[in-house]
Write a structure and sequence with these properties.
- The structure is a single chain.
- The protein is mainly α.
- The chain has a domain at about 35-125: Multidrug-efflux Transporter Regulator, Chain: A, Domain 2.
- Helix content is about 50%, strand content about 10%.
- The chain has five helices and five strands; from the N terminus they run E-E-E-H-H-E-E-H-H-H.
- The chain has helices at about 40-45, 50-60, 75-90, 95-125, 125-130, and strands spanning about 15-20, 25, 40, 65, 75.
- A three-stranded antiparallel sheet has the order 3-5-4. Strands 1-2 form a two-stranded antiparallel sheet.
- A hairpin with a 4-residue loop joins strand 1 (about 15-20) and strand 2.
- Mean pLDDT is about 80; it is low at about 1-10.
């Protein structure tokens, strides 16, 4: 296994500079949820599905994988999360339109819960609830 260079040429917060090449390489994008880092085979293996399942989600316009210059499908973690949610609903006996609607409603409910939590936090903080005219 190759190790990145240590010492003054390596800034842990930024790209690595490899000695002799002067070339910078950044792996920070791999941490991004929407970065298309996984091939179809890798994605299928992680989800425990056949590649045909992922192709069918692409054909049904549910998940739109990125394409490599050679035309290969590349998936992000966000897309894998959605495909995994769909797979669970399929395993429960739902068809694709029902699964899409269930996920849409779950997402709306999650957003509503977040909004409620924000409002409860605002109500719990009396300094934030005072009228600006009362602060004078």
């Amino acid at each position: 296994m190759l190790n990145p260079p240590a010492g003054p040429d390596r800034d842990r917060s930024g790209p690595a500079v490899y000695p002799g090449s002067g070339q910078q390489v950044s792996l920070n994008r791999l941490d991004e949820q929407d970065y298309p880092a996984l091939t179809m085979g890798q994605a299928a293996e992680l989800l425990g599905v056949q590649q045909a399942f992922l192709r069918s989600l692409d054909a049904a316009d549910v998940i739109h994988p990125h394409r490599s210059p050679g035309g290969h499908r590349l998936y992000s973690r966000t897309q894998l999360h959605l495909a995994g949610r769909i797979r669970v609903l399929f395993d429960q006996g739902h068809n694709l339109p029902a699964a899409q609607r269930i996920i849409e409603l779950q997402d709306q409910l999650d957003t509503a819960h977040q909004h409620i939590a924000e409002l409860q936090h605002q109500l719990a903080d009396p300094a934030r609830n005072r009228n600006p005219a009362d602060r004078r």
